[in-house]
Amino acid sequence: MAHRPGGKRALVTGGAGLIGSHLSDLLLGEGYKVRIFDNLEPQTHRNGKPPWVPAEAEFVNADIRDRVAVRAALEDVDVVFHQAAYGGYMPQMGKYVHVNSFGTAQMLEIIRDENLPVEKVVVASSQAVYREGAATCPEHGLVFPDTRPVEQLASGDYAVHCPLCGAVTTPAATPEEAPTGGETVYAITKVDQERLVLTWGRQTGIPAVALRYSCTYGPRQSVFNPYTGVIAIFATRLLNGRPPVLYEDGEQTRDFCYVGDVARANLLAAATDELDGLPVNVGSGRATTIREVAEMVSEALDAPVEPVARREFRPGEMRHLTSDISRARSAGYEPAVDLATGIERYLEWIRAQGGVRDYFAAAENILREKRIVQQAAKPPGSCQDR
Predict the structure, then answer these.
(1) How many CB atoms lie within 10 A of CB 140?
(2) If you classify domain 9-375 with CATH, what class do you get?
(3) CA distance 15 to 266
(4) β-pairing verdict for 141-143 and 135-137
(5) What pLDDT is stored for residue 88 in this prediction?
(6) Which of 200, 188, 334 is nearest to 268 (CA)?
(7) In this structure, are strands 320-323 and 253-254 parallel, antiparallel, or unpaired?
(8) CA nearest 129: which of 151, 144, 108?
(9) For 348-372, b where at least 16 C-beta lie within 10 A, e where not — what string?
(10) Residue 211 forms beta bridges with which residues?
């Protein structure tokens, strides 16, 4: 694929969302003609089409499951950036499969069966595809543990144990070669998406790349959706005088990547052939505990409210995940925005949105009812929660 877009046409599905909108801005700046396809999911876009959708882009308000609309949107497209997905810890199992798995398969089928002149497909995958982050065992070195059993979490044991000897491990950076699987519906469908795209690419000969995003955050992250984006959830809680809620003990770690860096990774994947046919980790390469994130947001907002941990956990959630970004780096990717700077940028944006509500409080009860969040046993002799 040519390195100079020179008026190439890009389709960005989910282009009104966090990543898709920043990517659309970048593409326009690089000279692409951009078509944005988005259904404006009410859970995320409560007020309809957001003001950041650029006037220079063609906007299509339609659902990725609508075959006629998808076919029309693919007309004369050179590159597809498939960002559209149903995400987070929401309880609708069927919708995840229909939107993420079926929607992706149908789009690929249309391109193939109608011999459309698409030159590349870049799909938004996720770190959620991993069963658990890589770990180091004192005896066996680098290991790839399975998802922690629900029974273990329910007992209050949150540690990641070596799959060979059972010893407690320490976190390690996770390479793309780590086993995938996932124990949440979202994770299963993200595995579906990336495998569908990469397998289709090999069969058709059309270059395809699956970008496994770390926890992405930044301006335009929805303040309405209580199921995605821990930084957004913590910020809206604190702005309403409520404490951030930590699952497990808050010491789980994640790789947080600023949205601008993720958008640039997409542009890179389209411009180079070095990543074609591959899953590629996109992150900062740095680990941060969830408790530290809560403290950083609290400090930045000057809202000294202590986070609370209620011995609750989410079955299927990994304990530690830091991306090994060597593969992306070898192609020229480099994260540019550190977490403290990124949080400040997000909070500056959220302050400009006026009053924000805490939507998480009501969602908590739904998550408990559906057993997406469960209660761990209280350790013998333990004191009151923090």
Answers:
(1) 14
(2) alpha beta
(3) 13
(4) antiparallel
(5) 66
(6) 334
(7) parallel
(8) 144
(9) eebeeeeebebbbeebeeebeeeeb
(10) 124, 280
Q: From CA 46, how far away is CA 312, in angstroms rounded?
A: 29
**Tokens read off for 37:** 């396809």
Q: Mark the ranges of the chain whose per-residue pLDDT is less than 70.
A: 1-6, 88-90, 226-228, 355, 358-360, 362-363, 379-386
Compute the distance between CA of residue 211 and CA of residue 128 in angstroms, rounded to an integer: 12
pLDDT at 5: 44
**The tokens of 128 are what?**
């959620």
> For position 385, what pLDDT does the model report?
40
User: What is the 3-state secondary structure of the chain?
Assistant: CCCCCCCCEEEEECCCCHHHHHHHHHHHHCCCEEEEEECCCCCCCCCCCCCCCCCCCEEEECCCCCHHHHHHHCCCCCEEEECCCCCCCCCCHHHHHHHHHHHHHHHHHHHHHCCCCCCEEEEEEEHHHECCCCEEECCCEEECCCCCCHHHHHCCCCCCECCCCCCECEECEECCCCCECCCCHHHHHHHHHHHHHHHHHHHHCCCEEEEEECEEECCCCCCCCCCCCHHHHHHHHHHCCCCCEECCCCCCEECEEEHHHHHHHHHHHHHCCCCCCCEEEECCCCCEEHHHHHHHHHHHCCCCCCCEECCEECCCCCCEEEECCHHHHHCCCCCCCCHHHHHHHHHHHHHCCCCCCCCHHHHHHHHHHCCCCEECCCCCCCCCCC
Q: What six digits make up the tokens of 152?
A: 């273990």
Question: 129: number of CA atoms within 13 Å, CB side?
Answer: 27
Maximum CA extent, the chain: 67
- Cα dist. 125→188, 340, 355 in Å? 11, 25, 33
Residue ranges per structural domain of the chain: 9-375
Inter-axis angle of helices 339-351 and 290-300, to 10 degrees?
A: 50
- Return the pLDDT at 3: 40
CB 265 within 8 A of CB 333: yes
- Type of residue at 348: E
